[in-house]
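If you are new to this repository, start here. Below is one unmodified record pulled from the training split, so you can see the exact layout before writing a loader.
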Amino acid sequence: MKKILNALLLTFLLINLPCFADDFHKYYKQAPSYAIKDFKYDNLNRIPINIKIIDDVTTKKNLAEGQKLIFLTTEDVVLTPKKVLSAGSRIIGTVETISKNDIGGIPANLIVGNLKIEYMPQIVLEGKIIKQGANRALWVRPLLPVLFYVRGGQAKIKKSETYTVYYTPKDL
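And here is the target side for that same chain:
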């Protein structure tokens, strides 16, 4: 008898569950159209800047936290009507975090942040470059006694890869 009651209760809940979801739409009110027209979308604009590194960087070589890395812009970017960032401009990034790879298939990690334009240090760019090496832990752990000394992959920033960072103008 208890099983029959539980089955009936479960059936009732499954049938009526979509009704509870519809209550949200009954009480949801859309913002009036005049509020949307007066909202300034210009404050949300972010200008994308595509960059590439000058030389390949890997966690296998001597990298240190706080080390500066040089990137170049790949195309002309208009920051404001008076400021234009030409292609080939230098962007300086700082290595924020390095974690070395380890035995057991654990990969290396590399985070580059604090990106600034070389001749315009007052302009701070948004975004970070986060790279991770090959994670070999998934196939090493089941065979742990045999493959215990297998290391994870190195994190690499290649000069063939393009990264996008953003500039948000403060006074539009």
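Two things worth knowing about this chain: The two ends are 71 Å apart (CA to CA). The first helix runs from residue 2 to 27.
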